[in-house]
Amino acid sequence: MTMARGKDTCRILKDIRRQIAKANDIEFITSECRYKGDCLGTCPKCEAEVRYLEQQLHTRSLSGKAIALAGISASALAMSMPLPSIAQTHPDSTYLVADSVSISAPVDTFVVKGKVAGRWTSSNEKKEGFDTLTGACVLNRNTNKGTITDIDGNFEINACRGDLIEASFIGYESLTIIASDSSKPMNIILEQDSNALMGEVVIVDIQTRYIDFNIVDENGNRINWENIHIERLFLDEDGKEDSEDIDLKYINENNPYRIYWSSDDGLQDKDGNPLKKTMLRIKAKGYEEPIIITVKRPKHHSKKTIRFKHKKEK
Amino acid sequence: MEKERAKIIGISQHRLSTDGNGVTTLVAFHECPLRCRYCLNPLSLGDDKPFRSYSPKELYTETRIDELYFLATNGGITFGGGEPCLRPQFIRKFRKLCGSDWQLNLETSLNVPTTNIKCLLPIVNTLIIDIKDMNAEIYRSYTGQNNSLVIDNLKLIAEQNRQNDCIIRLPLIPNFNTDADRIASRVALEALGFIKFDLFTYIIRT
Known about the structure:
Chain A is α+β, with helices and mostly antiparallel strands.
Protein backbone atom coordinates (compact mmCIF):
# COMPACT_ATOMS: atom_id res chain seq x y z
CA MET A 1 0.00 0.00 0.00
CA THR A 2 2.74 2.45 0.99
CA MET A 3 4.67 1.54 -2.06
CA ALA A 4 1.71 1.96 -4.40
CA ARG A 5 0.88 5.31 -2.85
CA GLY A 6 4.49 6.37 -3.12
CA LYS A 7 4.57 5.45 -6.79
CA ASP A 8 1.35 7.38 -7.36
CA THR A 9 2.81 10.41 -5.63
CA CYS A 10 5.95 10.08 -7.73
CA ARG A 11 3.93 9.93 -10.93
CA ILE A 12 1.92 13.03 -10.01
CA LEU A 13 4.95 15.04 -8.92
CA LYS A 14 6.67 14.13 -12.17
CA ASP A 15 3.65 15.30 -14.09
CA ILE A 16 3.74 18.61 -12.22
CA ARG A 17 7.41 19.03 -13.12
CA ARG A 18 6.64 18.28 -16.75
CA GLN A 19 3.92 20.91 -16.79
CA ILE A 20 6.13 23.53 -15.17
CA ALA A 21 8.77 22.87 -17.82
CA LYS A 22 6.25 23.04 -20.64
CA ALA A 23 4.68 26.28 -19.40
CA ASN A 24 8.11 27.91 -19.28
CA ASP A 25 9.67 26.47 -22.45
CA ILE A 26 12.23 24.54 -20.48
CA GLU A 27 13.66 21.50 -22.11
CA PHE A 28 12.85 18.68 -19.75
CA ILE A 29 13.62 15.06 -20.23
CA THR A 30 12.57 12.89 -17.39
CA SER A 31 13.37 9.25 -17.08
CA GLU A 32 11.39 6.44 -15.56
CA CYS A 33 12.32 5.75 -11.97
CA ARG A 34 14.27 2.58 -11.57
CA TYR A 35 14.23 2.68 -7.82
CA LYS A 36 13.06 -0.73 -6.63
CA GLY A 37 12.49 -0.24 -2.91
CA ASP A 38 9.53 1.37 -1.17
CA CYS A 39 8.96 4.62 -3.03
CA LEU A 40 8.33 7.58 -0.75
CA GLY A 41 7.15 9.73 -3.62
CA THR A 42 10.49 11.31 -4.20
CA CYS A 43 14.09 10.19 -4.51
CA PRO A 44 17.45 11.78 -5.36
CA LYS A 45 16.71 11.58 -9.09
CA CYS A 46 13.36 13.32 -8.68
CA GLU A 47 14.89 15.92 -6.36
CA ALA A 48 17.60 16.62 -8.90
CA GLU A 49 14.92 17.34 -11.49
CA VAL A 50 13.30 19.84 -9.13
CA ARG A 51 16.62 21.60 -8.58
CA TYR A 52 17.23 21.66 -12.34
CA LEU A 53 13.85 23.32 -12.92
CA GLU A 54 14.51 25.88 -10.18
CA GLN A 55 17.81 26.73 -11.76
CA GLN A 56 16.27 27.10 -15.22
CA LEU A 57 13.46 29.28 -13.86
CA HIS A 58 16.00 31.42 -12.05
CA THR A 59 17.95 31.87 -15.28
CA ARG A 60 14.75 32.85 -17.07
CA SER A 61 13.88 35.45 -14.45
CA LEU A 62 17.41 36.89 -14.57
CA SER A 63 17.04 37.37 -18.30
CA GLY A 64 13.78 39.23 -17.72
CA LYS A 65 11.40 36.56 -18.98
CA ALA A 66 8.09 35.96 -17.29
CA ILE A 67 7.67 32.84 -15.23
CA ALA A 68 4.46 30.85 -15.41
CA LEU A 69 3.95 28.85 -12.29
CA ALA A 70 0.77 29.22 -10.35
CA GLY A 71 -2.12 26.93 -10.94
CA ILE A 72 -0.75 25.17 -13.96
CA SER A 73 -1.13 21.71 -12.64
CA ALA A 74 -4.20 21.68 -10.49
CA SER A 75 -5.88 19.51 -13.08
CA ALA A 76 -3.14 16.92 -12.88
CA LEU A 77 -3.78 16.59 -9.20
CA ALA A 78 -7.50 16.52 -9.55
CA MET A 79 -7.20 13.85 -12.16
CA SER A 80 -5.02 11.59 -10.18
CA MET A 81 -6.00 11.69 -6.58
CA PRO A 82 -9.18 10.83 -4.75
CA LEU A 83 -10.60 13.97 -3.24
CA PRO A 84 -11.46 14.47 0.37
CA SER A 85 -15.04 13.70 1.12
CA ILE A 86 -16.30 17.21 1.10
CA ALA A 87 -20.04 17.31 0.98
CA GLN A 88 -21.04 20.77 0.03
CA THR A 89 -24.43 22.24 0.50
CA HIS A 90 -23.97 25.54 -1.20
CA PRO A 91 -25.54 25.46 -4.64
CA ASP A 92 -22.88 27.67 -6.21
CA SER A 93 -19.96 25.75 -4.91
CA THR A 94 -18.12 23.88 -7.58
CA TYR A 95 -15.30 21.71 -6.58
CA LEU A 96 -12.42 20.72 -8.78
CA VAL A 97 -14.23 21.32 -12.03
CA ALA A 98 -13.09 24.89 -12.44
CA ASP A 99 -9.45 24.08 -13.02
CA SER A 100 -9.95 21.23 -15.38
CA VAL A 101 -8.40 21.29 -18.82
CA SER A 102 -11.01 21.67 -21.46
CA ILE A 103 -10.75 19.61 -24.58
CA SER A 104 -13.05 20.31 -27.48
CA ALA A 105 -15.78 17.72 -27.32
CA PRO A 106 -16.22 15.28 -30.18
CA VAL A 107 -19.58 15.30 -31.86
CA ASP A 108 -21.08 12.27 -30.15
CA THR A 109 -20.88 13.61 -26.61
CA PHE A 110 -23.76 12.59 -24.40
CA VAL A 111 -24.71 13.11 -20.79
CA VAL A 112 -24.13 10.17 -18.50
CA LYS A 113 -26.47 10.18 -15.53
CA GLY A 114 -25.98 7.93 -12.59
CA LYS A 115 -25.62 7.39 -8.90
CA VAL A 116 -22.69 6.53 -6.65
CA ALA A 117 -23.20 4.29 -3.64
CA GLY A 118 -20.87 2.57 -1.21
CA ARG A 119 -21.29 -0.94 0.06
CA TRP A 120 -20.76 -1.51 3.78
CA THR A 121 -20.60 -4.68 5.80
CA SER A 122 -20.87 -4.96 9.55
CA SER A 123 -17.77 -6.03 11.39
CA ASN A 124 -18.93 -9.65 11.68
CA GLU A 125 -19.79 -9.56 7.97
CA LYS A 126 -23.30 -10.77 8.64
CA LYS A 127 -25.02 -7.63 7.45
CA GLU A 128 -24.40 -5.51 4.44
CA GLY A 129 -26.02 -2.51 2.88
CA PHE A 130 -25.53 0.50 0.67
CA ASP A 131 -25.12 4.16 1.43
CA THR A 132 -25.52 6.74 -1.28
CA LEU A 133 -22.35 8.79 -1.32
CA THR A 134 -22.73 12.54 -1.19
CA GLY A 135 -19.79 14.52 -2.49
CA ALA A 136 -18.14 11.59 -4.27
CA CYS A 137 -15.84 12.67 -7.09
CA VAL A 138 -16.81 11.54 -10.58
CA LEU A 139 -14.27 12.21 -13.26
CA ASN A 140 -14.12 11.64 -16.98
CA ARG A 141 -10.51 10.61 -17.32
CA ASN A 142 -10.50 11.31 -21.04
CA THR A 143 -11.48 14.97 -20.69
CA ASN A 144 -10.24 15.59 -17.13
CA LYS A 145 -13.61 17.10 -16.37
CA GLY A 146 -15.20 16.14 -13.15
CA THR A 147 -18.13 16.71 -10.90
CA ILE A 148 -19.29 15.68 -7.46
CA THR A 149 -22.42 13.79 -6.50
CA ASP A 150 -25.34 15.61 -4.94
CA ILE A 151 -26.92 14.84 -1.61
CA ASP A 152 -28.63 11.73 -3.03
CA GLY A 153 -25.48 10.45 -4.71
CA ASN A 154 -26.63 11.53 -8.20
CA PHE A 155 -24.31 12.92 -10.86
CA GLU A 156 -24.33 13.98 -14.48
CA ILE A 157 -21.23 14.12 -16.62
CA ASN A 158 -20.48 14.59 -20.29
CA ALA A 159 -18.82 11.68 -22.03
CA CYS A 160 -18.25 10.01 -25.36
CA ARG A 161 -18.68 6.33 -25.94
CA GLY A 162 -15.62 4.58 -24.57
CA ASP A 163 -14.57 7.33 -22.14
CA LEU A 164 -13.35 6.20 -18.73
CA ILE A 165 -15.52 7.44 -15.89
CA GLU A 166 -13.90 7.18 -12.51
CA ALA A 167 -15.73 7.47 -9.21
CA SER A 168 -13.84 7.96 -5.98
CA PHE A 169 -14.68 8.65 -2.39
CA ILE A 170 -12.45 8.68 0.62
CA GLY A 171 -12.45 5.31 2.36
CA TYR A 172 -13.57 3.45 -0.76
CA GLU A 173 -11.68 1.92 -3.61
CA SER A 174 -11.99 4.01 -6.77
CA LEU A 175 -13.78 2.38 -9.66
CA THR A 176 -13.54 3.14 -13.35
CA ILE A 177 -16.37 2.31 -15.73
CA ILE A 178 -16.45 2.70 -19.49
CA ALA A 179 -19.20 4.97 -20.78
CA SER A 180 -21.22 3.01 -23.29
CA ASP A 181 -24.79 4.11 -23.58
CA SER A 182 -26.52 7.28 -22.51
CA SER A 183 -29.94 5.70 -22.06
CA LYS A 184 -28.95 3.52 -19.10
CA PRO A 185 -28.16 5.11 -15.75
CA MET A 186 -24.63 4.43 -14.61
CA ASN A 187 -24.89 3.09 -11.09
CA ILE A 188 -21.50 2.82 -9.46
CA ILE A 189 -21.01 0.83 -6.31
CA LEU A 190 -17.76 1.40 -4.47
CA GLU A 191 -16.28 -1.15 -2.12
CA GLN A 192 -14.79 -0.09 1.19
CA ASP A 193 -11.05 0.17 1.12
CA SER A 194 -9.97 -0.76 4.60
CA ASN A 195 -6.37 0.22 3.88
CA ALA A 196 -7.26 3.65 2.58
CA LEU A 197 -9.37 4.39 5.60
CA MET A 198 -6.66 3.24 7.92
CA GLY A 199 -4.29 5.70 6.33
CA GLU A 200 -6.52 8.60 7.19
CA VAL A 201 -8.24 7.75 10.41
CA VAL A 202 -6.19 5.19 12.23
CA ILE A 203 -6.98 5.72 15.82
CA VAL A 204 -5.65 4.04 18.86
CA ASP A 205 -7.87 3.48 21.82
CA ILE A 206 -5.77 5.19 24.44
CA GLN A 207 -7.64 3.33 27.15
CA THR A 208 -6.16 0.07 25.93
CA ARG A 209 -4.17 -1.37 28.79
CA TYR A 210 -0.60 -2.26 28.18
CA ILE A 211 2.76 -2.58 29.86
CA ASP A 212 5.93 -1.38 28.21
CA PHE A 213 8.99 -3.39 29.06
CA ASN A 214 12.37 -1.82 28.79
CA ILE A 215 14.58 -4.92 28.86
CA VAL A 216 18.25 -4.10 29.16
CA ASP A 217 21.60 -5.61 30.02
CA GLU A 218 23.84 -4.54 32.88
CA ASN A 219 25.10 -1.60 30.82
CA GLY A 220 21.63 -0.32 30.05
CA ASN A 221 21.70 -1.47 26.41
CA ARG A 222 18.41 -2.82 25.12
CA ILE A 223 18.35 -6.57 24.56
CA ASN A 224 17.28 -7.68 21.09
CA TRP A 225 13.58 -8.44 20.96
CA GLU A 226 14.16 -11.73 19.17
CA ASN A 227 16.13 -13.06 22.11
CA ILE A 228 13.39 -12.48 24.66
CA HIS A 229 10.71 -14.91 25.69
CA ILE A 230 7.94 -14.13 28.16
CA GLU A 231 5.53 -16.60 29.69
CA ARG A 232 2.88 -16.50 32.34
CA LEU A 233 3.30 -18.89 35.26
CA PHE A 234 0.28 -20.39 36.95
CA LEU A 235 -0.91 -23.50 38.71
CA ASP A 236 -3.14 -25.80 36.70
CA GLU A 237 -6.23 -27.60 38.02
CA ASP A 238 -4.07 -30.29 39.60
CA GLY A 239 -1.94 -27.75 41.35
CA LYS A 240 1.03 -28.25 39.04
CA GLU A 241 3.07 -25.41 37.69
CA ASP A 242 2.19 -24.58 34.12
CA SER A 243 3.07 -21.76 31.75
CA GLU A 244 1.66 -20.01 28.73
CA ASP A 245 3.49 -17.85 26.19
CA ILE A 246 2.79 -14.15 26.19
CA ASP A 247 3.01 -12.10 23.02
CA LEU A 248 5.63 -9.39 23.40
CA LYS A 249 5.12 -6.79 20.67
CA TYR A 250 7.89 -4.99 18.92
CA ILE A 251 6.80 -1.41 18.19
CA ASN A 252 9.90 0.19 16.68
CA GLU A 253 13.49 0.87 17.59
CA ASN A 254 12.61 3.92 19.66
CA ASN A 255 10.00 2.21 21.80
CA PRO A 256 10.10 -0.41 24.51
CA TYR A 257 8.54 -3.81 23.89
CA ARG A 258 4.87 -4.06 24.79
CA ILE A 259 2.32 -6.47 26.20
CA TYR A 260 -1.35 -5.71 25.53
CA TRP A 261 -3.19 -6.82 28.62
CA SER A 262 -6.68 -6.54 27.21
CA SER A 263 -6.16 -8.55 24.04
CA ASP A 264 -3.54 -11.17 24.95
CA ASP A 265 -5.17 -14.61 25.32
CA GLY A 266 -2.43 -15.61 27.73
CA LEU A 267 -3.55 -12.93 30.19
CA GLN A 268 -7.13 -14.09 30.50
CA ASP A 269 -8.72 -16.52 32.90
CA LYS A 270 -10.56 -19.55 31.60
CA ASP A 271 -13.75 -17.52 31.16
CA GLY A 272 -11.95 -15.03 28.95
CA ASN A 273 -11.82 -12.24 31.54
CA PRO A 274 -8.58 -10.33 31.93
CA LEU A 275 -6.51 -11.34 34.93
CA LYS A 276 -6.10 -8.88 37.80
CA LYS A 277 -2.46 -9.81 38.29
CA THR A 278 -0.07 -12.47 37.17
CA MET A 279 3.41 -13.86 37.49
CA LEU A 280 5.65 -13.57 34.44
CA ARG A 281 8.88 -15.39 33.66
CA ILE A 282 11.18 -13.50 31.33
CA LYS A 283 14.06 -15.24 29.61
CA ALA A 284 16.73 -13.63 27.51
CA LYS A 285 18.97 -15.76 25.31
CA GLY A 286 22.63 -15.40 26.27
CA TYR A 287 21.86 -13.96 29.69
CA GLU A 288 21.79 -15.42 33.16
CA GLU A 289 18.83 -16.86 35.06
CA PRO A 290 15.28 -16.00 33.92
CA ILE A 291 13.67 -13.17 35.86
CA ILE A 292 10.32 -13.77 37.54
CA ILE A 293 8.11 -10.82 38.42
CA THR A 294 4.54 -10.28 39.52
CA VAL A 295 2.64 -7.60 37.62
CA LYS A 296 -0.77 -6.10 38.19
CA ARG A 297 -3.17 -5.27 35.39
CA PRO A 298 -2.33 -1.65 34.50
CA LYS A 299 -5.06 0.97 34.78
CA HIS A 300 -3.97 2.38 31.43
CA HIS A 301 -0.29 2.06 30.63
CA SER A 302 2.61 1.18 32.82
CA LYS A 303 6.32 0.77 32.37
CA LYS A 304 8.80 -1.73 33.75
CA THR A 305 12.51 -1.95 33.38
CA ILE A 306 14.00 -5.45 33.50
CA ARG A 307 17.74 -5.78 33.85
CA PHE A 308 19.64 -8.90 32.84
CA LYS A 309 23.27 -9.81 33.35
CA HIS A 310 25.36 -11.43 30.63
CA LYS A 311 26.30 -15.05 31.26
CA LYS A 312 29.70 -15.28 32.85
CA GLU A 313 32.29 -16.97 30.69
CA LYS A 314 33.47 -20.18 32.22
CA MET B 1 4.67 34.09 26.60
CA GLU B 2 4.97 31.70 23.69
CA LYS B 3 8.38 30.19 23.20
CA GLU B 4 10.28 30.97 20.03
CA ARG B 5 10.97 27.32 19.31
CA ALA B 6 8.32 24.66 18.87
CA LYS B 7 8.49 20.92 19.35
CA ILE B 8 7.45 19.15 16.18
CA ILE B 9 6.44 15.51 16.21
CA GLY B 10 6.57 14.97 12.47
CA ILE B 11 6.92 16.51 9.02
CA SER B 12 5.26 14.71 6.13
CA GLN B 13 6.01 15.89 2.59
CA HIS B 14 4.07 15.56 -0.66
CA ARG B 15 0.60 15.05 0.68
CA LEU B 16 -1.77 15.35 -2.22
CA SER B 17 -5.21 16.79 -1.60
CA THR B 18 -5.46 15.09 1.79
CA ASP B 19 -5.13 18.19 3.88
CA GLY B 20 -5.59 21.31 1.86
CA ASN B 21 -5.21 22.04 -1.83
CA GLY B 22 -2.34 20.99 -4.02
CA VAL B 23 0.90 19.56 -2.75
CA THR B 24 1.20 20.13 0.97
CA THR B 25 3.64 19.37 3.72
CA LEU B 26 2.09 18.45 7.04
CA VAL B 27 3.86 19.87 10.07
CA ALA B 28 2.60 18.37 13.32
CA PHE B 29 3.13 20.25 16.57
CA HIS B 30 3.51 18.72 19.98
CA GLU B 31 0.91 19.54 22.70
CA CYS B 32 -2.85 19.60 22.66
CA PRO B 33 -5.42 20.95 25.12
CA LEU B 34 -7.73 17.98 24.48
CA ARG B 35 -7.57 14.39 25.61
CA CYS B 36 -9.71 12.65 23.03
CA ARG B 37 -10.57 9.08 23.75
CA TYR B 38 -9.53 8.05 20.24
CA CYS B 39 -6.61 10.38 19.69
CA LEU B 40 -5.16 10.27 16.16
CA ASN B 41 -1.67 11.24 17.24
CA PRO B 42 -1.17 10.29 20.89
CA LEU B 43 2.49 11.08 20.29
CA SER B 44 1.57 14.74 20.53
CA LEU B 45 0.47 14.37 24.14
CA GLY B 46 3.08 12.72 26.29
CA ASP B 47 6.38 14.15 27.34
CA ASP B 48 8.14 10.84 27.39
CA LYS B 49 9.73 11.21 23.98
CA PRO B 50 12.25 13.76 22.89
CA PHE B 51 11.13 15.56 19.75
CA ARG B 52 13.18 17.93 17.72
CA SER B 53 12.35 21.56 18.30
CA TYR B 54 12.45 24.05 15.45
CA SER B 55 12.65 27.77 15.14
CA PRO B 56 10.37 29.21 12.43
CA LYS B 57 13.45 29.78 10.30
CA GLU B 58 14.71 26.22 10.64
CA LEU B 59 11.30 24.90 9.67
CA TYR B 60 11.17 27.23 6.69
CA THR B 61 14.61 26.13 5.52
CA GLU B 62 13.58 22.49 5.77
CA THR B 63 10.22 22.83 4.01
CA ARG B 64 11.42 25.20 1.26
CA ILE B 65 12.71 22.21 -0.68
CA ASP B 66 9.16 21.75 -2.06
CA GLU B 67 8.49 25.40 -2.85
CA LEU B 68 8.27 24.75 -6.57
CA TYR B 69 5.48 22.24 -6.03
CA PHE B 70 3.69 24.56 -3.62
CA LEU B 71 3.73 27.43 -6.08
CA ALA B 72 2.71 25.31 -9.04
CA THR B 73 -0.22 23.60 -7.33
CA ASN B 74 -1.38 26.32 -4.96
CA GLY B 75 -0.19 24.18 -2.09
CA GLY B 76 1.87 24.88 1.00
CA ILE B 77 2.03 23.92 4.64
CA THR B 78 -0.68 22.39 6.75
CA PHE B 79 -0.01 22.86 10.43
CA GLY B 80 -1.53 20.08 12.53
CA GLY B 81 -0.61 18.18 15.60
CA GLY B 82 -1.37 18.35 18.44
CA GLU B 83 -2.92 21.76 18.31
CA PRO B 84 -1.22 24.26 15.97
CA CYS B 85 -3.26 27.20 17.27
CA LEU B 86 -1.31 27.04 20.52
CA ARG B 87 1.58 28.46 18.46
CA PRO B 88 0.23 31.61 16.78
CA GLN B 89 3.48 33.58 17.01
CA PHE B 90 5.48 30.74 15.52
CA ILE B 91 3.09 30.49 12.57
CA ARG B 92 3.04 34.27 12.08
CA LYS B 93 6.83 34.31 11.95
CA PHE B 94 6.72 31.43 9.50
CA ARG B 95 4.35 33.40 7.26
CA LYS B 96 6.77 36.34 7.26
CA LEU B 97 9.54 34.02 6.13
CA CYS B 98 7.63 32.15 3.43
CA GLY B 99 5.83 35.16 2.00
CA SER B 100 2.29 35.32 0.73
CA ASP B 101 2.47 32.74 -2.05
CA TRP B 102 2.44 29.61 0.07
CA GLN B 103 -0.91 28.36 1.26
CA LEU B 104 -0.91 28.00 5.02
CA ASN B 105 -3.60 25.74 6.43
CA LEU B 106 -4.49 24.83 9.98
CA GLU B 107 -5.87 21.53 11.15
CA THR B 108 -7.33 22.59 14.46
CA SER B 109 -9.90 21.85 17.14
CA LEU B 110 -10.31 25.63 17.76
CA ASN B 111 -10.23 24.89 21.48
CA VAL B 112 -7.79 27.73 22.14
CA PRO B 113 -8.15 31.33 23.36
CA THR B 114 -9.90 33.57 20.81
CA THR B 115 -6.88 35.89 20.80
CA ASN B 116 -4.89 33.06 19.19
CA ILE B 117 -7.43 32.70 16.38
CA LYS B 118 -7.63 36.49 15.94
CA CYS B 119 -3.89 36.51 15.52
CA LEU B 120 -3.90 33.64 13.00
CA LEU B 121 -6.90 34.41 10.79
CA PRO B 122 -5.24 37.19 8.78
CA ILE B 123 -2.30 35.01 7.82
CA VAL B 124 -3.80 31.60 7.06
CA ASN B 125 -5.69 30.47 3.98
CA THR B 126 -7.70 27.47 5.10
CA LEU B 127 -8.84 26.05 8.41
CA ILE B 128 -9.69 22.38 8.66
CA ILE B 129 -11.72 22.33 11.83
CA ASP B 130 -12.13 19.13 13.78
CA ILE B 131 -15.35 19.97 15.52
CA LYS B 132 -15.91 16.55 17.21
CA ASP B 133 -19.54 17.34 18.13
CA MET B 134 -21.34 20.62 18.80
CA ASN B 135 -23.20 19.12 21.76
CA ALA B 136 -21.35 20.28 24.87
CA GLU B 137 -21.99 17.07 26.80
CA ILE B 138 -20.80 14.79 23.99
CA TYR B 139 -17.79 17.02 23.49
CA ARG B 140 -16.88 16.90 27.14
CA SER B 141 -17.25 13.16 27.44
CA TYR B 142 -15.14 12.58 24.32
CA THR B 143 -12.41 15.19 24.82
CA GLY B 144 -12.51 15.87 28.55
CA GLN B 145 -12.94 19.58 27.82
CA ASN B 146 -15.58 22.24 27.53
CA ASN B 147 -16.36 23.46 23.99
CA SER B 148 -17.26 27.06 24.77
CA LEU B 149 -14.00 28.35 23.28
CA VAL B 150 -14.73 26.39 20.11
CA ILE B 151 -18.10 28.10 19.78
CA ASP B 152 -16.56 31.53 20.47
CA ASN B 153 -13.97 30.93 17.79
CA LEU B 154 -16.57 29.73 15.28
CA LYS B 155 -18.49 32.95 15.91
CA LEU B 156 -15.31 34.95 15.47
CA ILE B 157 -14.66 33.27 12.11
CA ALA B 158 -18.26 33.96 11.08
CA GLU B 159 -17.98 37.64 12.10
CA GLN B 160 -14.96 37.96 9.86
CA ASN B 161 -16.76 36.22 7.00
CA ARG B 162 -14.17 33.51 6.70
CA GLN B 163 -16.60 30.55 6.70
CA ASN B 164 -15.78 29.71 3.09
CA ASP B 165 -12.17 29.17 4.08
CA CYS B 166 -13.16 26.47 6.55
CA ILE B 167 -13.69 22.77 6.11
CA ILE B 168 -15.58 21.34 9.05
CA ARG B 169 -14.79 17.76 9.96
CA LEU B 170 -17.73 16.01 11.54
CA PRO B 171 -16.81 12.56 12.74
CA LEU B 172 -19.18 9.79 13.70
CA ILE B 173 -17.53 8.64 16.91
CA PRO B 174 -18.54 5.15 17.98
CA ASN B 175 -20.08 5.11 21.47
CA PHE B 176 -20.06 8.91 21.69
CA ASN B 177 -22.38 10.36 19.06
CA THR B 178 -24.95 9.28 16.52
CA ASP B 179 -25.97 10.34 13.04
CA ALA B 180 -28.74 12.42 14.59
CA ASP B 181 -26.15 14.27 16.72
CA ARG B 182 -24.10 14.87 13.63
CA ILE B 183 -27.06 16.31 11.77
CA ALA B 184 -27.75 18.58 14.75
CA SER B 185 -24.11 19.74 14.69
CA ARG B 186 -24.31 20.41 10.99
CA VAL B 187 -27.52 22.41 11.31
CA ALA B 188 -25.94 24.56 14.05
CA LEU B 189 -22.87 25.15 11.92
CA GLU B 190 -24.88 25.95 8.80
CA ALA B 191 -26.74 28.53 10.84
CA LEU B 192 -23.36 30.20 11.41
CA GLY B 193 -22.76 30.19 7.65
CA PHE B 194 -20.34 27.28 7.29
CA ILE B 195 -20.84 25.37 4.05
CA LYS B 196 -18.07 22.82 3.63
CA PHE B 197 -18.31 19.64 5.60
CA ASP B 198 -16.23 16.50 5.70
CA LEU B 199 -18.21 13.64 7.18
CA PHE B 200 -16.42 10.50 8.20
CA THR B 201 -16.46 7.67 10.71
CA TYR B 202 -13.81 6.66 13.17
CA ILE B 203 -12.79 3.05 12.72
CA ILE B 204 -11.54 1.66 15.97
CA ARG B 205 -8.64 -0.70 15.76
CA THR B 206 -7.77 -2.49 18.95
